[in-house]
Design brief:
With about 260 residues, this protein is mainly alpha-helical. About 55% of the residues lie in helices and about 5% in strands. It contains 15 helices and two strands. α2 runs parallel beside α4. It starts with a helix and ends with a helix.
């Protein structure tokens, strides 16, 4: 079991980019991973890699399906049985097969919706070749988070949105679409400035790989980017679509659900 948990934590850190305990969507998922990986066949073959991919897909489906939001013990028992059966060639676990997600829901996800919020932060960390620090442009790791004071911050500063753009609803300012991991130094430079202002300062730093750093955070680049026109509505639409692409990649979802229409 200890070996299973150790492997599970390794998968979370290396593959799912849960770099620090604070970003783990559900602690109650750990017993499931430990049990399944303890019971699975230990062999040095491609089968081990296949099972690792299955665990990763289950993790992301559990996060975005919010499977462990309640009755975690029952969910754990169900998932252990169904994951082991899946490993042996059985059907997809219900956690995976029944997942539905409406990308429009991302505009309502704030730090209060802890699991999905944390999941998206980890998703951004693992997009492409890995999110890069705005200050050092190093790939963000748990150690770098601690050393550089990297935490989740607004891209369009909250005060700028409220004062200059008239965005009065805090949820709209604080949603995950307007967040990414930014180091302490850069966040102090940003303060309450417009994106077009503070980003120009970063972009104009000689030899800084500006486009690569923005792309690594799933942020728009190019002259037509809504960041340059400080167009918050257009930015939210763009980033929702970009993050939805990442969610599809890790969960296997092929279409979006309209959860409002289903009510």
């Amino acid at each position: 079991v200890v070996e299973g948990l150790n492997l599970g934590l390794t998968i979370l850190r290396d593959d799912c980019k849960v770099m620090l305990p604070k970003w783990l969507p559900y602690q109650t998922m750990l017993p499931t991973m430990a049990a399944v990986l303890a019971k699975s066949v230990k062999e040095k073959s491609a089968n081990s890699g296949a099972q690792r991919e299955m665990i990763k897909r289950w993790f992301w489906c559990s996060v975005f399906g919010q499977s462990y939001e309640s009755a975690a013990n029952s969910q754990c028992a169900k998932d252990v049985t169904e994951l082991l059966a899946w490993f042996d060639g059985g059907n997809l676990p219900e956690t995976v097969s029944s997942l539905s997600f409406d990308p429009k829901a991302l505009s309502d996800v704030t730090p209060r919706q802890r699991a999905v919020y944390r999941g998206v932060i980890c998703l951004i960390l693992g997009a492409g070749t890995g999110a890069r620090d705005f200050h050092t442009q190093s790939v963000i790791t748990g150690k770098l988070m601690a050393d550089e004071g990297i935490d989740d911050h607004h891209i369009f500063p909250a005060n700028f949105l409220q004062v200059s753009k008239g965005v009065s609803e805090s949820r709209r300012r604080d949603c995950i679409l307007n967040r990414t991991l930014i180091d302490r130094t850069t966040n102090q430079v940003i303060s309450n400035r417009a994106p077009s202002d503070y980003l120009a300062e970063i972009r104009d730093t000689p030899n800084f790989p500006f486009d690569a750093v923005l792309t690594s955070h799933c942020l728009p680049i190019g002259d037509g980017s809504p960041l340059w026109s400080d167009d918050y509505d257009a930015f939210l639409i763009w980033r929702q679509e970009r993050l939805w692409q990442e969610i599809q990649r890790v969960t296997g979802l092929t279409h979006a659900d309209d959860l409002e229409a289903e009510k």
